[in-house]
Amino acid sequence: MSRDGNRYCMFAILSPLIFVGIASTGTQAQELPEFYGVYAVHNGKLTELKRNPQSNNYTMPLGGADIIQSMSGITFPDSDLSFIIFSPQVASMDTEIWVHIMAPIRNAPSPSFHIQDRGWTFRVAPIPNQPQMVKLVRKGGTSGGHLALMLPGGFFDFVINQPPHPDGVCVERLVSFIGGAVIYRPCGTQQGETRQHAQQERTKDVVYPMTAERAQQLEALFQQFLSNPPVALAGASLVGRDRYPMQVRIASYDRSSNSVTGEVEWPTLNAVHRMEGSLVGRTLIFREVAHIKKGKAGLGCVYELQIEDERSLAGMWKRCDGSSDSGRTELTWK
User: Please, are residues 133 and 86 in contact by the beta-carbon 8 Å criterion?
Assistant: First the structure.
């Protein structure tokens, strides 16, 4: 064999070794991580993200644990990001992962942030020949500002040096007398403004901006609905990918205090709970306080649901059985 032939054979043998740790992403080579972790990818380069130390209890308002003050400081120049997760548990991940908006809290010590229940979904894709790695991708990117990648083991905060989404500009923290429930509203400079965003993605946020006049109309309409008890609402709560039907029957409504009482029935969990709550603006806040019929449903859940239109409410459930879990609840009324 000629000297040139020997060179060709040697290159053929070494080529697979040269590209270990590199994956092809179209025309651009993608660096892959060496160690387990969560990584952001910008221009093909990896940056390891840090799990926020408040990940364990950020949904718990007790003692202000929902106020995020420990930030990583990791910053990117724009939103052209994807993510790589390197873990033995990637096979059990959902098919979509959320990146949530973080908004600064005006009436809390600075710097303080709240994780909004609004953001963008990233699709989970396998990485060829890497069974312990997945890539999170999204077409169109995100807005700027402080953001949080939400994973089952916690959240990973970072900053994009671009203008934030309007819901990431500023919020105020309000505490209800019902079980210490906390709601967040846009700061005064945002209230009453009308925003029309081209192709704005509506997600699961419980505080959706609208004009002050429209909010007052919906609040008055719902108060009228509550004024003739008993009244019923029907819908479901989401726990991961599972959907649990629920019926809320409001037996009494005191217009002077805006307080409500009633019961919550879980048909598929064979449970009925007594509930107490109040209407705060256009947000219905209530808590399951006692068993009427003990079944498989957790007790103590707090619901913060906003009136979205003439027939529906949507928002969050959290703190069931004292846990830090949370999810989405949707109800309809007529």
Answer: yes
Going by C-beta distance under 8 Å and a sequence separation of 6 or more, which residues neighbour residue 142?
79, 81, 99, 119, 120, 160, 165
pLDDT for the residue numbered 14 = 32
41's enclosing H/E stretch is strand 37-42
pLDDT score, position 180: 53
Of the candidates 244, 258, 252, 243, the residue with the CA atom closest to the CA atom of residue 274: 252
Return the bridge partners of 155, or none: 150
Taking the C-alpha atoms of residue 147 and residue 101, their distance in angstroms, rounded to an integer, is 5
Q: Are 288 and 300 spatial neighbours (Cβ–Cβ below 8 Å)?
A: yes
Instruction: Determine the Cα–Cα distance for residues 178 and 328; give it in Å rounded to an integer.
Output: 19
What contacts 303, CB < 8 A, 6 or more positions away? 277, 284, 285, 286, 287, 315, 316, 317, 329
Residue pLDDT, tens place only, 293-331:
999 998 989 898 888 888 899 888 887 877 767 888 999
DSSP conformational letter for 281: T
Residue 151 CB burial class (10 angstroms; 0-12, 13-18, ≥19): buried
Q: How far apart are CA 41 and CA 53, in angstroms?
A: 22
pTM of the model: 0.55
At 87 the pLDDT is 95
For 4: left if phi > 0, alpha if psi spans -120 to 50, otherwise beta; the answer is alpha
Query: Among 85-94, 195-204, 233-242, 256-265, whose mean pLDDT is lowest?
Result: 195-204
